[in-house]
């Protein structure tokens, strides 16, 4: 049975994901997800929806073209999904971590997510909004002529996500060198991470960082979270888009994130 | 006579079919493969088949291939003299397509024209200006001119220059401005914003605020930078009107 959208502002992504039944579009009650609020208005056979930021007042962060839209009123159910960001993410650690020579450590950092709001009816779905749950700043990584434009995020090693709008990234860092290494930031490639839901929080697959020299590391994205995460249910897996199989294979081979010198 | 007519009609039909097939195939390919990878192949394949059909049609109506080849040299010479400019544009077109200096969708500046490349043909490049005017630039001209391509790299540096008096200049101004710029959402965190000072004799100090942004957000970022620098100077009571700092004019 459908439920009306709640009036409570700034509801977390986790709250929406934990609901057992989908929401019903309502003109009277806006939909709050993280920093965003979506209003609905009935216009004959159509619903008009408009998006604004609930807390930050950062109207300029939202491109004008995606603020307002229309959809068929038959699509009266609202589904909220959590996905990963559309760009790579640089997680800068608040305090650098020292990794002793020939040792390893397991830690977790938090990372922000994207929210996908979908209007649906039976098998028909229409994505209304797909954007980071909180307005994100950009940063660049790599050479100045071939930079990788990434979202920027700051985190400490944590055991639980800092907020309900975030997920955990389990890291296993192995220092294979004879020297101690300081880790200041980590670059997470978007196409190789998956998102899982446990009974407490959202978590990604495990990332293994192998430090091979003072400035070089290789990264390996495991297919699942660590075994310590119980009952992790896969809720988002990135798809390779567009290119034919041969080109896709070539692209994967040269994909940044697998190679050395990555992650620091 | 009737045979020649049939051949002509047949080849025209073949050309028509080829055009449909070519358009259909490349429309599918453009959806799957980045435009820049197959653009040259698209153009080359089209003109190659067109040339082949011409040769076949001539051969069928009685003109032998050896005659065609024999006259090709003379024709090339004649055409070369008659259409020197066109041939120059044609070759330039293939050079442009091959070197990938510019691509469809790039924002470029050529002489007085600034706009987005709509198409690169073998003879001309079509530019759509911001006031929605389509300009055809001959490829030869494009190759000989200075071309600024604003879409080549995904990130760009923007700057805002202000002249301030030496009395107003102190470390706290630089720190304050830098802190403000670091919090602007349209500017990148890394490379971080930079304030560069240089002497402007007789006028004061030239203060240049420089920051990086995503190329697609250039206009927004530039506006934000200019507004923030002006707001910072205004908040600190710093007048940045260059005219006021001429040596022969009193400071207000």
How would you portray this structure in words?
The complex is a heterodimer of chains A (264) and B (252). Chain A has 264 residues and is mainly β. Chain A is built from 2 helices and 20 strands. Chain A is elongated, with a radius of gyration of 20 Å. Chain B is 50% helix and 21% strand. Chain B has 7 helices and 8 strands. Chain B has a 5-stranded antiparallel β-sheet with strand order 4-3-2-1-5. In chain B, a hairpin with a 3-residue loop joins β7 (194-200) and β8 (204-214). Chain B starts with a helix and ends in a 17-residue tail after the last helix. At the A-B interface, β12 of A face β8 of B.
Considering the chains and any ligands shown, give keywords for the structure.
heterodimer; A: 264 residues; five-stranded mixed sheet; 2 helices; 20 strands; 6% helix; elongated; disordered N terminus; B: 252 residues; alpha+beta; SH3 type barrels; Alpha-Beta Plaits; 3 domains; five-stranded antiparallel sheet; three-stranded antiparallel sheet
Topology (SSEs and partners):
The complex is a heterodimer of chains A (about 260) and B (about 250).
Chain A: E1 3-4, H1 13-18, E2 23-24, E3 31-33, E4 36-43, E5 46-53, E6 68-72, E7 77-83, E8 89-99, E9 103-112, E10 114-121, E11 124-132, E12 137-141, E13 148-155, E14 166-175, E15 181-188, E16 195-197, E17 202-204, E18 207-211, E19 217-221, E20 233-236, H2 245-253
Parallel strand pairs in A: 1-2, 8-13, 14-17, 14-18
Antiparallel strand pairs in A: 2-7, 3-4, 4-5, 5-6, 7-10, 8-15, 9-14, 10-11, 12-13, 16-17, 16-20, 18-19
Chain B: H1 2-32, H2 35-60, H3 65-82, H4 84-99, E1 107-110, E2 113-120, E3 124-129, E4 134-138, H5 139-144, E5 147-149, E6 155-164, H6 171-182, E7 194-200, E8 204-214, H7 218-235
Antiparallel strand pairs in B: 1-2, 1-5, 2-3, 3-4, 6-8, 7-8
